[in-house]
Amino acid sequence: MGIQKICCIGAGYVGGPTCSVIALKCPNICVTVVDRSQERIAQWNSEKLPIYEPGLDDVVKKCRGVNLFFSTDIHTGIQEADLIFISVNTPTKVFGNGKGRAADLKYVEGAARMIADIANSNKIVVEKSTVPVRAAESILNILRANNKPGVSYQILSNPEFLAEGTAIEDLLHADRVLIGGEDTPEGQLAIEELCKVYEHWIPRKNILTTNTWSSELSKLAANAFLAQRISSINSLSAVCEATGADVSEVARAVGLDSRIGSKFLQASIGFGGSCFQKDILNLVYICECLNLPEVANYWQQVIDMNEYQKSRFSNKIVESLFNTVSGKHIAILGFAFKKNTGDTRESPAIHVCKTLLIEGAILHIYDPKVEHDQIMADLTHPSVTEEPEVIRKTVHIYDNAYEAAKGAHALVVCTEWDEFMALDFHKIYQVMMKPAYIFDGRKILNHDALLKIGFHVQTIGKRIQRPIQARLWGSRVQT
Ligand code: UDX
Ligand code: ADP
After folding, report:
1. In 244-366, alpha helices (H)
2. Does the predicted model carry a pTM greater than 0.85?
3. Residue having the nearest C-alpha atom to atom 28 of ligand 1
4. Hey, how many other C-beta atoms are within 10 angstroms of the C-beta on 76?
5. Catalytic residue of the set 26, 63, 240, 275
6. Does the active-site annotation cover 275?
């Protein structure tokens, strides 16, 4: 018969886009995405989707109401499905054992318990959320301990490798699909059923099947490797600044070695996003629990280097502005953790803003896609400030870069949005305080052109010398 009905628990950044693409590519399968948040589901059913992701609107428009449904009726969703994806969030634990490192599996456990309560026919349950190795076993324990007569479960691990901002492309043209399951005839049969779903658009040779634990560990490993590359190049960016080398040239020279490859060698103000930090902390915690301290320390360094990079950049801003930003207006361009998303989870911009706010700066923030409320929520969060009222008065959010730059002493690029490259910096220079500083945390601007206009420019992994003429002009303006 094959899979006819899919239910996805969790309508977030993973569940929403993934199921939209499954619905698009499998017109014979009915896909229902359920969430306990009424607001989220209402947004998925509206004109303005809850997440910004290039190409997503078109896919949803094509399938919604045809074979793609968004609903809060979790009960019916689970009951009718042959296959259930668990795509709930797995944040880092904020209290108790493993606090600050281990993944909090309460939402995964909650989803498993709901399935156990509701299901009255056989189900294939697929973990899509990134979870610690052996989490599938916990899900299985919950399901089998609450087994009803005539109901059996197969648990598969099918980690999602999509990156935000390119989610639809990543889903449509996945490098690989990974499916892990039990090494039993029933387990293999379940793997086969899920393979058939993906085979609607992914060539079979790109669908890898493994045991459950390999699949779970591979997701953590892939994210750890990617983040490690960024920390490696970021560490060298500090060496470049100290020696006069240019990190972009180094990255290019290194990346042209086909054994190394050119991707994920872009030095930046540090990586952000919901996955990298969380997954590496999780890996570190697992290694500690397995009594592998050397391995734990090795991966912890990737996080430590990221913290160093974020602090290094924030401190450079303060130092360059004559060691004080108290009362100074600073424009922040970009608040999302990367371009083409409105997501701010673990965004390095939060770190930069926090440092500047602690130092007494007044911030003018602009991001093309992040909602104003989200920026304020992030900056008034207890991890950033104990005085949210003060922050509300010192943070101003704007609808375009020119407004944000008005009266600013410095402009800080935190996200690599394409539109920042096309800004009229002559116009921006006119409305800023002098001397006007630009800190390009993403290395996207034309630094020579900025120097010619009269800006003082600082970036990552490269010393920028002002030409003599600009220096003279700058000092004339200062006096
Ligand atoms: C990541 C993984 O790429 C994806 O496979 C996994 O499923 C989820 O985690 P995501 O966090 O959405 O995806 O975005 P990604 O493109 O990996 O970027 C993460 C962070 O690294 C961003 O802050 C980005 O700006 C930064 N980055 C990326 C760099 O600083 N330099 C680079 O060269 C690449
Ligand atoms: P991710 O980035 O992993 O997709 P999100 O936070 O964007 O994470 O989405 C996870 C979604 O899962 C949220 O919308 C949350 O409301 C939903 N969720 C969590 N637990 C449950 C549950 N037990 N039942 C239904 N939805 C849930």
Report:
1. 247-255, 276-289, 293-320, 348-358
2. yes
3. 264
4. 13
5. 275
6. yes
